What does this fold into?
Amino acid sequence: MRKHLLLLWAVWAITLPLFAQLTIKVTAIPANTPPGAQIYLAGTPNTWNPGDPGSILAPAANGAYQIVLNVAAGEVKFKFTRGSWATVEGNAAGSYLPDRIIQYNGSAQTVNLTILSWEDLGSGGSGTASANVFVLDEDFGMPQLNRNRKILIYLPPDYATSGKHYPVLYMQDGQNLFDENTSFSGEWEVDESLNELFGNGDDGAIVVGIYNSAFRLDEYSPWVNPQYGGGQGDEYTDWMVETLKPYVDANYRTLSGREHTGIMGSSMGALISLYAAIEHQDVFGKVGIFSPAFWFAGNSAYTHVSTTGKEQHIKFYLLAGDQEDNGSVVEDLNAMYNTLSNAGFTDEELFLLTHNDGQHSEWYWAREFPDGYEWLFSNSTATPTGEESPVMRVRISPNPADSVLRLELPIGLIEPMLQIYAFDGRLIQPPTLIRGNEVNVSYLKRGAYIFNILSEGRVLNSQKVVIAE
It folds into this structure.
């Protein structure tokens, strides 16, 4: 009997670690957490499902929340969400928080944690995004991947006051584009840069910012890296082309043609942008490749360009810095430039730029974004609806102006009227009948304005006019 009990004890002692549990307890949550919100764990225990009903934290004593995991010993990676990646937790500033990592030893263990903020709610600050940046959708459907994604959209300052249609730029890593509070390590300042360019005479463009997720590496490469993942780039690209772009074109005033449609990204975002442009040359006519992570795909990116070849005219803006991975990114970029050239793309379609001080960082991409945008979109300007409309024949000069403007209007225009908006959207002059070909603008302060020409209550022409003095 004694031997039998000792044997049972030995078996129990050996198997005990197999039944040990890891308890993760959240002792505090942000004050701005919506009432009644459920908190989910998304990570390696549930294949990073942000809304897994089996991974909801249960209420515990003293206002805490907890979840008990049956996992094997080793590294456990996770984040907390409120049910989607759009509502993932953030750091103390309300921006990106890296994955949490616990080295679980296989024995019964409790870990106490605090949720500092939610990315979509921030830390309570107002953020740095301009007023003309909007949330297109918190959970935009991705049927090709059975996921959802947060999408931001930047609209030019005159979008609400003009009837113009605009070129469109689709950009990866959307949380890094407009707002310091949601960025990984500083923002690109895309909105500030485009607003400044608009004030200096640029016609403007719509920018669609696509948030990344825990599936970033998988989605940003159609090729599998044995160590880091990948392999879902085809589905991600199909989603952009088949679902996202048609929605944007149907709901916003876009110039939907390939010659007016660009795609841009940095690092892995540059890899998928190049792939999408080569794979869908009928959709994209402009590509911004900033500090590309071509290393992730081995030789596959170069082979894809070579085997596909040139099918359409595309403008490529290629950028990298010598301070990136000991200059290897520049070497890769030079190799891609040569590959594109050998595939048939001409010198007029290729622009290669490197900097001695360039680093793999948002500050570098923010600094260089305006030049890249201007080069890519130099031959694509916002236009009014209808190529045959008399709006195409309206001329306002000089621009920039001093005190007097000259208007050249179509013959036969019925009671033409001039309406003026300030750059920030304030109405400066209501529709006023135009008498003669000259307009006194000496009363306007220095800055940028929107001049609308109307006839019979319809905006026929909308142009930016800069008052220099």
In short: Residues 5-19, 386-392 have pLDDT under 50 and may be disordered. Residues 136 and 357 are 36 Å apart (CA to CA). The helical segments are 2-15, 190-199, 216-219, 233-251, 268-279, 300-308, 328-342, 362-376.
